[in-house]
Each structure stands twice: as structure tokens, then as C-alpha cells.
Amino acid sequence: MTNHHVEAVVEGLAFPEAPRWHDGALYFSDFYTHLVHRLGPTGVLHTVAEVPGQPSGLGFAPDGALLIASMVDRRVYRLAGGELAEIADLRDVAPYHINDLIVDREGRAYVGNFGSNLGVDAIVSTDLIRVDPDRAVSIAAEDLIFPNGMVITPDGHTLLIAETFAYRITAFDVTVDGALNNRREWARFGDGPAVDLADALASGNVLPDGMALDAGGRVWVADAYGSGALLVAAGGQVLDAIEIGDLTVFGVALGGHDRRTLYMCAGPPLGGVDPATVRQGSVFACRVSVQGSGSP
């Protein structure tokens, strides 16, 4: 494993998630403050949107507009010109909170969801939802276990998605019209799925969350069980690890002027203190050897 130098670039947050590098800046959501932030090249933090329903996944449309998953009310919003507008209501297709999303080069958004009330109910399978540029809503894939972080390869032909509580990363072929076919396992970190959150945490398995693809075809994976990010190859081999201490990394992005800075959004471990009331969230940065690739 490489000896990495990690530094905190933002502190005092609630629960930062869904980091995205876009147009020379880092964007991320902070769940419990209901804010979406932009961290510019000078290190100054700006708030770009307030989302009462709790912002989560972020993605940029081809025209540069920011799409935002609003967790609790299960809606997708579009931010353009400083104005926030609803583009999709997913309450009929998402049984509980929505979470991460990714936008492909055609402007289609793929949106994950919890499936059930995590921490209270049993973990159940759910669907990955697609929102097209014309705002049409459809089911992109069925029977996923907590569909979460996603990446799309540079050619646009493959989507990888973390099934957090099944301890695996799943791959799909993306057709020209945005359909997802040829489902297959890309990496596995343990036998699953978990029965509930307590079962998942007791397993000691990697819980894959947010992901970032590098130019070597590997993914940096946020481990929602551990205390850092893992570099994973197809098949599940862990090639490198970056530890950040007592916090847990839930989202990662490769950015910077050469896309060789790994940004890690971190907060209190699952099942620990309440991040809605305790401000322990931080964004960390670390230089890595291989630049980012694909989307986001």
C-alpha cells in the first residue's frame, strides 16, 4: 500500500456526500444542513443551493445545469442560473429516500434509493430509476440491494453501481437509448445481502458507497464500514487504501487540475453519533498516481 499524505480541506460539516468535480471546482452535498456547496480553486466554500428535502446525489447535465437528488421528498431538481426547479417526482417508483445519482453524456440521470427505512426495517431489494432529459421517469434496473454510488466509463458503454448492503459492485452495459443490459458482478467484498444495518456492520465487510473511476479502469471506493477509501480492480482485488482516521468515507471524486486529487467526503461512522446534531463531517484530499476518467 502507498504512503499517502491526506489533508482536510473543509471541516465542520454535517454529512458531506456526492462529491463531483466540475469546471475547475468541487461540488458536494451536506445532508443535514440541506446545502449544496462549491469549493473553488482558492479554497473558498460557496453555497450554490438550499434543498429543504435534503440534498444527496449530484450530476451535471450536458448544458452545465446541476441535477440534485432530494432525498426525503424523493424529487430531482435542476439548478440553472441560480434557480432551482423540480424536474421529476419519484415517489411512485422509489419506496423510500433516494440517494446517489449519475448523469450520462446524453443527460439521462440514473437515481438510486434506499428501498426501506435503513436502521429500522429489513434491507430489501429496490429499483434503479432513470430520469430522461424530457423528464420521463422509468425503471432502469430491478432487484438491486441499496443501489448507491455509480460511475460510467469514458466511452459511455458501461455503468458500475455499488450495491452497498450486498457487498458488491455490479456492472451493466449501457445501450444507445440508455437501457441497462448484461448485468454482471464486477467486484465482491463478502457474501450477502445483509439482513439489516446491524447485520451489515457486524459482517466486517466492505460496504461500497461512492465511487470514482481512474484511467486504469480501477475504481476508488468509499467504504461505508471502514475509515477510508479503497482502490479496487475488476474482480475485487484491493490495490491500495487511504485511511483518514476516526471518520468514515462515504463519497469520493477525482479532481484537481490534472484529476489526480482524490477528494473524500467523510462523516461519523454508521450507527455512531447523530450527524444531524454533531458537526464532525469533513472533506479530505490526497494526491494519487493515476488520473480520473469517465463520469462523474
Structural overview:
The relative contact order is 0.16. The chain is 2% helix and 52% strand. The mean pLDDT is 96. The protein is globular, with a radius of gyration of 17 Å. The chain has 296 residues and is mainly β. Strand 6 and strand 7 (66-70) form a beta hairpin. The strands form 6 sheets. The chain has a 4-stranded antiparallel beta sheet with strand order 1-24-23-22, with no helix packed on it. Strands 2-3-4-5 form a 4-stranded antiparallel beta sheet, with no helix packed on it. Strands 6-7-8-9 form a 4-stranded antiparallel beta sheet, with no helix packed on it. The chain has 1 helix and 24 strands.
What percent of the residues sit in helical stretches (DSSP H or I)?
under 10%
Total DSSP E strands: 24
In the sheet with the most strands, the strands line up as 1-24-23-22
Distance between the termini: 26 Å
Question: What's the helix-strand series?
Answer: EEEEEEEEEEEEEEEEEHEEEEEEE
What is the strand content?
over 45%
Structural class: mainly beta
Averaged pLDDT = 96
Rg over alpha carbons: 17 Å
Give me the number of helical elements.
Answer: 1
Oligomer: single chain
